[in-house]
Every structure is written in C-alpha cells, then in structure tokens.
Write a structure and sequence with these properties.
The chain is mainly α. The chain is 51% helix and 6% strand. It is globular. The termini are far apart.
Length: 412
C-alpha cells in the first residue's frame, strides 16, 4: 500500500522501531526477529529502498520524530489487534499532523471490516468471511511492479548497526536458542512450498497426531510477518481449487486466525480470566474451591516437573523447539487448569510460559488458544465435572485413542 501511495516515484523508506520493553517476549524470539530483519535489510537494499531501525524509549515517539525530521508525506503502519499495537498506532497518529494509515496485512479480510464486535465462534465469523473472500483473496503484485524507473534511488544507504541494537535490546530472560528454525522470508517460503507439496492433502486427517509431521510449521513466520497469510492461503487455494473453507488448512489460516484477531481486538482482557465467556466464568467460579489432586508452581510447570509424563513431554518440546504440536497445546493448557489453584492463576501460567518459550508467543493465536482451553472461549458448555466445571475436558486416555502417546513421550 505504501508503494502504491507513493506512486513508486517518490522516496519510500522501511522503518522498524525498537523500544525499551519491546514485546519480543524472549531472547529466542528477539533472535528470530533480528535474523529476519537482517534479511529484510538485504532485500530492501537490492531494491534501492532505504531500511532504517529506530531506537528509543517509545516506538511511536521514535517514528513520529523521524517522520518529522525527514518531512515524510505519510506514514503507513501495520495493524496489530493486541493492546500494545493498538495503543502505539493511536499515539503515533495523535503525534503526527501528517497522514497516518493503518493497513491490516495480518489478515486476508481486514479484521475491522469483517466484524465490529467480538464473534461468538468460528461458525459466526466464517459466514462473514466467505461472503467477501473472493474480494480479498487475490494475488499481491511483486514490489518491483510498483517501482518506477524514473525514481531516485538512494545509493548511499548506510547499514544498520545490528551489534549495537542486540547489545541494548536483547532480553536476558534465559530462554535458550532454538535449533531447527531458520528465520527469514526465504526460509518461510521454502517451508510453505514443502508443506503444499508434501503434507497439505493429508493435513485434515493427520494434523491431530503429534507423531506425524503433518502441520505446516509456518506459525513463527506468520507471527513475525516474514510470510503473509495471503501468500499461504493462495498457495493452498491453488492446490485445492474450490474446496469449502470449513475444515483443513484454509480454515485454520483464514477463519481461525481471523477469529483470534477478532477476540483480541474486541476483548481488552484477552489474556486473563476476565476475558472468558460469561458461562465459563460462572461455571469455573462455582468450582473454584474444588479439591485439586495436584497443584504445581510456575517453576515446576516450566521445568516439566509434573507427575504426567505426557504433559512433561509437551513442555519439553516447547523448551527445546520453541513450539508445541497444536493438539498437545490444548492438552497442555487444560492440565494447567486442572493443576492450578484457580482458573485465574492457570491462565497466567499458560500465558507466561507460551509467551516466554514459544517462537509465536505474544500472538493472538496463543491468547485465544489458552482462553479456549482454560476458559471455554469459542466453545460451548459441556458436561459438568470437578475443577473444569462446564469447560471441555481432556485426559491422557483420550490422547491414547488418537495417537501413540508412548512414542511421543520417548521423543521428548
């Protein structure tokens, strides 16, 4: 959009702003960001586009000051449905007398366009998305198509001092590096191609077996904006043709992703007990003082020191790989509810661990997933039982019916 706005002739610049308290959430997440930004710098330079990294106490202040200093005609920023992103964009708009445009490149159908309220579940938002999907699910032209040969290219672009940025802003929270994930758009697109050619058609049937390599592996790349949901959905749609949205990969990357963003945009308490649906809060309140057979501290959860080897294996996968199989993440969060003093502390624990250790932490999908597992978000009431109330229950026996639990435990 920024290229189109500039007409491809006027000078255009890519800016990324770091600030103190930057929500990279972990040192492993920060390292992933830096590696991706380094690649972006190289790509931008090849196109003759200046790439700058700003630093300061507040991102919106740094961007506003810089926009004034270079006399920018307009500022185009990314939509972020979480509170920090919404606040930063609003403060930026208020700090500038220039044109500020927020573009929703996270979703295929813009989040604010699809709904002006929190949706009840996938079935309500899916209908709205299906009506307009042909309008939005269209190919995005390459950047070069927008660049005019008559534009003035800055040949004196200075490289970013990455060592200085890493020294000043890298968190020291102890989350170790992740093996197996290579950051950057190039690797993200390679993983997308591998998924489309090797696993897409078995995804719907195999995705709930954590022993099979059936999932896309795209989550960190989507989270950090290194590939777009648009590109992934178009690639899948070309393979599937006119297949319906419900079920499978297209449903996950279009409907479920949009639903998570919708939840965080319209529910300010998305990462706490207060954000749960009323029926779940009422039910969990009734069972607040139910006897728990086991109660673990945050440190015990974090170090995979529970009595349940399946749960411990899931936590160890998160610690080692920076990710957890989607089916196991549901089990993982529900058992945190079962082994915590109350639902409030369970949600806090799940959010802390996911944000600290997962490469896609601090993301709407993570918050919505924890709220689904612990607080019944986007779900219905089930048969009432101790501790869980009417929130959906999961146990190891159910897992054993779906996959080889012992094989999974042996891997982690």
């Amino acid at each position: 959009y920024a290229l189109e706005l500039s007409g491809g002739i006027d000078e255009i610049e890519i800016v990324f702003a770091f600030s103190h308290g930057f929500p990279a959430c972990s040192s492993r997440g920060f390292d992933f960001i830096i590696a991706g930004l380094r690649e972006t710098e190289v790509h931008a330079e090849a196109l003759g586009i200046k790439f700058s990294v700003l630093t300061g106490p507040c991102a919106h202040t740094s961007v506003a000051d810089y926009a004034h200093a270079i006399n920018a005609a307009a500022v185009v920023c990314d939509f972020n449905p979480m509170r920090e992103g919404l606040e930063e964009n609003l403060k930026l708009a208020n700090a500038l007398s220039k044109r500020v445009v927020e573009v929703d490149s996270r979703n295929i159908a813009p989040c604010r366009f699809i709904s002006d309220k929190q949706e009840y579940g996938a079935f309500t938002i899916r209908k709205k998305i299906e009506k307009v999907l042909p309008l939005f699910l269209t190919p995005i032209p390459p950047v070069r198509d927008f660049l005019k040969s008559t534009r003035t290219v800055d040949t004196g672009i200075k490289p970013v001092d990455w060592d200085k940025i890493i020294k000043e802003y890298r968190p020291s929270n102890g989350s170790s590096a992740v093996e197996g994930f290579v950051s950057g758009s190039r690797r993200g697109l390679e993983i997308l191609d591998e998924f489309i050619s090797e696993r897409l058609f078995s995804y719907a049937d195999s995705r709930n077996d954590p022993n099979l390599n059936a999932q896309s592996g795209l989550s960190p790349y989507l989270h950090f904006g290194q590939i777009s949901a648009q590109s992934a959905a178009l690639a899948a749609a070309r393979s599937f043709g006119d297949a319906p949205l419900k079920g499978g990969f297209l449903d996950e990357i279009i409907v479920r992703r949009e639903l998570s963003d919708n939840y965080c945009l319209y529910n300010k308490d998305y990462d706490s007990f207060s954000g749960f649906p009323a029926w779940a809060k009422q039910s969990l309140e009734i069972h607040r003082y139910d006897r728990r057979e086991f109660i673990y501290s945050l440190n015990q959860f974090e170090n995979a020191e529970t009595h349940d080897e399946l749960w411990n294996a899931a936590q160890r996968q998160l610690l080692r790989q920076g990710s957890m199989h989607g089916y196991m993440r549901m089990y993982w969060a529900k058992k945190i509810l079962e082994w915590s003093p109350d639902a409030e502390s369970a949600m806090r624990t799940a959010v802390i661990l996911n944000d600290r250790w997962s490469l896609d932490g601090h993301d709407t999908n993570g918050y919505a997933g924890c709220a689904w597992a612990i607080g019944g978000l986007h779900d219905r009431a089930w048969s009432e039982r101790s501790v869980y109330g009417k929130v959906r229950y999961m146990n190891e026996r159910g897992c054993r019916r779906k996959f080889d639990v012992d094989q999974y435990i042996s891997r982690f």
